[in-house]
TrEMBL record:
Domain of life: Bacteria
Pfam families in UniProt: DUF3298
Coiled coil: none
Annotated DUF3298 domain residues: 210-287
Keyword Signal among UniProt keywords: yes
Signal peptide start-end: 1-27
Protein name per its UniProtKB record: DUF3298 domain-containing protein
Keywords, ordered alphabetically: Signal
Species this protein is from: Acinetobacter chengduensis
Length: 317
């Protein structure tokens, strides 16, 4: 009985081994093809960022005459532009508000102490925003001192100040940042300004108006701008004729420019070419008039093609 049982178990084992041997071999798992990774886009040729507001502490105040101040700086992927715009903001503040020499000296000492502290402790990382907030602090004190002085004179006027940068062109053909500012610091009326800064991202340099021009084309640009000025005077009904207007407000070429989609914009400040009532005038010269004035890389593609076709071709032999 035991012998038959062992024979049965042996038979089942042999049968199982035979079945396993008859099974087709399992295919090796195929390795999944590696997905092609897209290269990270090169952002060095573009200006990407936005304005960030500086944190400013104002004393508690109620009423309609409380001072208002708003300061923004540029926070972008191009640190050299951020630093440049920071400096221009400080220059504007310096033109608007006076800082006492004693305060300037105290600021310098404080900056040196701060720098020494940073060298000793790498953990104390100072961001550009924090650094800028420290640099504008003296101007904030001057702003509040002015407000206090005006209120001492029984003035119920509300003083205000705003500076804010904005990216207009991201990099083709040049990167452009506009710095807008407005202020009312007492007196008959406030003030405003709009300054454009244009950069070549490859060379990391500021691009001036002269850099845009073909050789010996500055007089031609002045002529075109003067014609745009005459049209602006008459369209704005500022005088019966341009000759009379220029007795008081002479034309001059502005170096403050912006390459817009419509043409070269020449921006003027208050009182540059007109009275306060005209605000911040701007003259626009269409690209079609600038085909032989601007370098090819600063012209839109269509205008550049037309300009190239207009060039005289060498005679075929």
């Amino acid at each position: 009985m035991v012998k038959h049982k062992n024979i049965g178990l042996f038979s089942i084992l042999v049968l199982s081994m035979g079945l396993v041997a008859c099974q087709p071999p399992q295919a090796e798992p195929k390795a999944e093809p590696e997905k092609a990774t897209k290269p990270a886009p090169d952002l060095s040729a573009k200006l990407i960022g936005d304005a960030e507001k500086l944190k400013i502490q104002l004393p508690d105040c109620n009423g309609k005459s409380c001072p208002e101040i708003s300061l923004d700086r540029l926070n972008s992927n191009q640190s050299f532009i951020d630093e440049f715009i920071d400096q221009k903001i400080l220059e504007q503040l310096g033109a608007m508000l006076s800082i006492e020499p004693e305060q300037q000296k105290a600021n310098l000492v404080a900056s040196e102490v701060q720098a020494a502290s940073e060298v000793k402790s790498l953990a104390n990382v100072q961001t550009p925003q924090i650094k800028m907030q420290q640099q504008v602090e003296p101007y904030l004190h001057a702003f509040l001192a002015l407000d206090k002085e005006l209120k001492t004179l029984s003035s119920a006027q509300q003083i205000s100040l705003m500076i804010k940068p904005k990216i207009l062109n991201s990099g083709q053909p040049i990167a452009t940042v506009v710095l807008n500012s407005s202020s009312y610091l007492g007196g008959a009326h406030g003030a405003a300004a709009q300054q454009y800064y244009n950069f070549d991202l490859k060379s990391k340099k500021l691009v001036s108006l002269d850099d845009l021009l073909l050789p010996k084309q500055k007089p031609r640009l002045e002529q075109l701008a003067h014609e745009a000025f005459k049209t602006w005077v008459m369209d704005s009904k500022l005088a019966d004729n341009v000759q009379d207007y220029e007795q008081a407000w002479k034309f001059k070429l502005s170096e403050n420019y912006y390459l817009s989609k419509d043409g070269l914009i020449l921006q003027y400040g208050e009182y540059d070419i007109g009275p306060y009532v005209v605000g911040l005038p701007r003259l626009t010269i269409p690209y079609t008039q600038l085909e032989t004035v601007l370098k090819a890389q600063y012209l839109p593609a269509k205008v550049e093609a037309v300009a190239s076709e207009a060039q005289p071709k060498a005679a075929s032999k």
